[in-house]
Structure formats: C-alpha cells, structure tokens
Amino acid sequence: MTGKLAENVAYFARALRGAGLRVGPGAVVEAVEALADGALGGRDDVYWALHAIFVKKHEDSAVYDQAFRLFWRRRGLIEKLMAQMSPVTPRVDSEPQKPEAGALRVAEAFTPPPREEEPPVELTELTARLTVSERETLKSRDFAQMSAAEIAKARQLIAELRLPNDAVPTRRFQAAHAGARIDPRRTFRRSLRGGGASIDLAFRERAEVHPPLVALVDISGSMAEYSRIFLHFLHAVTEQRRRVHSFVFGTRLTNVTRSLRARDPDEALALAGKAAPDWEGGTRIASALHAFNRVWSRRVLSGGAVVLLFTDGLERHLGPDLSFEMDRLHRSCRQLTWLNPLLRYDAFEARASGIRAMLPHVDQFRPIHNLAAMADLCRALSPDARQITDPRQWLKKAG
Fold first, then answer.
1. With contact defined as beta carbons under 8 Å apart, do 260 and 231 qualify?
2. Which contacts of 180-189 are long-range, i.e. CB under 8 A and separated by 24 or more positions?
3. Is 249 exposed, middle or buried (0-12, 13-18, 19+ CB in 10 A)?
4. Chain mean pLDDT for the chain
C-alpha cells in the first residue's frame, strides 16, 4: 500500500528508531498491512496493533507510549486514518499528559538535528589551537553549575564510563580451553563418544566474579544537586555489573536497586523518586546506617563487597551511634570509600563533628563533584590502584 498512510507509518517507525527502539523495515511493512486491513475500530486498536509490532521489550513500552501520543495527536492523523477506513469514527478526547520517562528522547527523535554551521573564515590558527573541546570543559565543570543542556550531555558521558576489571577467583570451577588443571568428568565423557579409542583432554579453571558494589546515597536537601547525577552513574554501572545494590537515605533508608534496573534512565530515576518519600528532606546518617547494618549488611556485603558512601557528613543529630555504625560498616566490607562533594573546595577542613566521627572508619576519602572525579573513582576501584593519602590526615589538619 502506498500513499500518506505508508509515509506516516514509515516516519513514525523512523522516530521510534531514533528514540532507541529496534524497528526494522519488516516491522514497517507489517504495520502498514495491519492498518490497511480496515478491521481496526478505534484509537486504542491502532495503539495496540502498532504496539504489538514495534515493541519487542517491556522497557520500550514507555518510549512507545510517549511517541504515539506525540506523533498522532500533534498531526491529528488518527482521526483522518479512521475516517478513511470507516464512515463513523469514535471520538476520544485526549487529556493533556504529564511528562513521563522517555519524553525527552522522543521529542528529540521527532525534532530534526540542527544544521552544523561552517566555521567562519576569519578564525586564525592561533584561535584554533587555544580552543578547548566541549568534552574537556564538561569534565571539569561542577555539577551544581551546569545548565540543563550540559547535564544532559554529562549523562551521556557518564554512560561511557567503565569500571575496571576487578574480578576475583572463587572456589568454583568452570570449563576452559587449556590450562594446567584437567577436568576428569568431561574428559571421560569425550572419550566415550569416540568409543574410548582416543582421549581428548578437557580442562577447567577457577571461575572469577566481580565483587558486589553497594552504594549508600544521601538524598537530603544539601545533596540534591549531586545525588541525581550520581544515581545516573549507578544506573550505568548497574547495566555493566550484576551485583550492584543501591540505597538512598535522608531521614530513612530506601532500597532502590530494582528501580535502577529499568532500561531507560529517566524511568529508573522516576521510580527511585517515587520509592523514596524523604527526597530533599533532612539527614539522619546514623539511623540510616543502623538500618542498613541491621537489615541489609548480611544480604549484600558477602563476597568482599565494595561500599560507596555518598554524603557530605553533615549530621544534625550527632551521637555516639554514628561512629559505632561506621565502624561496623567498615568491618563488614572489603573497602569503604567516602565520596564527599565538599572536597571540591580548596579550603575544606574536617571541622564538623559528623565528619570527624566518620573519617577514622573509611579507606578512601574522595571528591565527587564533576566528571573527572567520577573517572578517578573508576580508576580507584581497581585492585591494583594504590591509595596515596590516608583519610585520617584530614583530622590532623583540622586539629
């Protein structure tokens, strides 16, 4: 079938492909044939018919829903399409929808890319040499000073970060092509296939797994500008590793591990925001650590886990419990790294009582305010990385 219908369906499929869905030419042909049959009775029938053809994964449903509403509502094509296929078209009043996960990517997919302007001729060679690339500028820009467009580009750079290969050997064995250890069971099975005339040796080696990565993220009001960016980093890490556990805390502790497993990053952060009712509220670090040590430590800290504590350490209700819970957390994991955005200031001193109570129980004390700091964190998580400074030196400087 040719005409406006085929062109509109092809354009809609092209927009879905630009938003991240895997839509091939065969799916476009199936969609045109499904709409050309004339057996669809209303808007919902068209929605679910195209949904069955274009959506192959559950996590792509949110993006498809946004694209369908934006494309067919803006152009009014559903009403024209139903008027051509049937004499009476059921009218459905569409209410304005709130922006949901994936809406930004869908809008960018429907918007044609801007034309790149040629550089002016009057630029000299000296100016070109002194020009700093946008990527290098974003690496050193503070998250709190970024605009909305810069934050969107920073999220793309965060997705490109890769953790080091810190796999550790386990007691279990797995099949190997060669090695010094022979697998008797697999060797005997191979020999029986050929009647026992020849022996084909099979080998095995110790299996390696990545240690668990546990993140405790402060989402109080003073950390709101940095916690969302760091949750994007955890979402990217969750796609790379299997055993990644994420927790957020303000006045209470919330497990957002399942929320960050959503494929779409916007949907993942939206689910995490709904799961944590104390977002941008107060801070109770001691009670949050107590809840983690009591309920979750034995579940997620086995196997030499690495813990990332993301907070500024400004505890309102300070008591002896904070030092005790920090010591218990430090003894339960292989490495405890404290990420503090306050370290971005050159004049930072560990004078706050909460910071002084937490510093003796951490292995690393690092800043986390820009992309360069995140890249340094990825390198620091390597087992071969050497720690240069001792966190307890901050206490001596303040003293």
1. yes
2. 181/205
3. buried
4. 77
